[in-house]
Amino acid sequence: MSSVYNRTLSAAELQAFGDELDAVRARHLASLGASDARYIRRIVAAVRWTGVAGRTLLFLGAFVHSVLVPAWIAGVVLLALSKILENMELAHNVIHGQYDWMGDPSLQGKTYEWDIVGTAENWRKTHNFRHHTYTNVRGLDDDIGYGLLRIFPEQRWHPFFLAQPFVAVVFALLFEWGIAIQDLRVGRLLNRKVTLRQLWAQARPVRRKMLKQLLKDYVLFPALAGPFFLPVLLGNLLANVIRNVWTYVVIFCGHFTADAETFPKDCIRNETRGHWYLRQLRGSSNLAGGRLLDVMTGNLSHQIEHHFYPDIPANRYAAMAVDVKAICARYGQHYNTGSLPKQFGQVVWRILRHAFPSRPAPERPLVVAEPAEQPGNAPSVGAA
């Protein structure tokens, strides 16, 4: 439970809060155009050419022994950079439909497939819909601990969690594999809710994607190096690990800092637009660090703005954050931001602390005491 005080809003204030945040979205949506298209095409080019440069340097180091070490290191760094940019600033944002308005078939959210072992189709279900609709709602948002970690005291403790400091490190190294099997809900097998044969059949699309990625990174490209197969294979492996760890750090900093909150299921009953924004705000954390950090995180350094506006091009988030922060201040709502070391330090503390039994603080209601005049579900854009 967050120790930060958020002022309780009246029904009228809550309505106005939602209206002001909707207005920010409308202004930016109306002004989308050539500069946004140019930006994402530059990211596509950066992904392509850093990838080509990285793989070329890995081969160069393999065949020209005098530059083996520096070329191999530079190749790994550039290939990892390419994979990070593709994963975070390109694929994640495109799959959200942020660039559907361009009409470019290669940048359509419903058809884009990314460069990890998980399928984009599963991600659209587990992330775009489930996580963004039910952000930090216990029992509905599977991203709370990903079924492996106890990060909030409201999660029931089991002896298994004593191992979670070790589990968390392994999960970071293999993050793309955890994401790949998330929608399979392997725990159902242990609970005998599904048979192994059924689970194997359900996993067919994921198995095919895993095989494709394994062949590309660990067979095809290393084989092109002939007798120097191993250095290229190890370079590809390390680039993937770097991408996995970076993605893990960014995502965990966006959701599991000290001031981030989780919510009971009943908080979304008759949830208004203003309530939805409030829940997104209190379950999210930003990272302060400037333009380079924004690009390297896929602009998830602005996780609050991403949860508010998942279908708006992420290169707009820095500008939107100025207005969002001012609105939050006017309504007495904490805008959770901090440096990467500070935010990740809080995440690490949560992982260590809640590996052991702990009791949750008394639940503070998310919603105002008096109901809004016209209750209803949050508009569908929240699940974009």
Automatic annotation (TrEMBL):
Membrane-traversing stretches: 57-81, 160-181, 218-239
What is the main EC category here? oxidoreductase
Q: Does the keyword Transmembrane apply?
A: yes
Q: Residue limits of the Fatty acid desaturase domain? A: 71-337
**Does the keyword Ribonucleoprotein feature in the UniProt annotation?**
no
UniProt-listed Enzyme Commission number(s) = 1.14.19.-
UniProt GO MF annotations: oxidoreductase activity
For this UniProt record, the keywords arranged alphabetically read as follows: Membrane, Oxidoreductase, Transmembrane, Transmembrane helix
- Extract the ranges annotated as region (Disordered): 365-384
Source species, please?
Stenotrophomonas capsici
Q: What is this protein called?
A: Acyl-CoA desaturase
Pfam annotation, one family: FA_desaturase
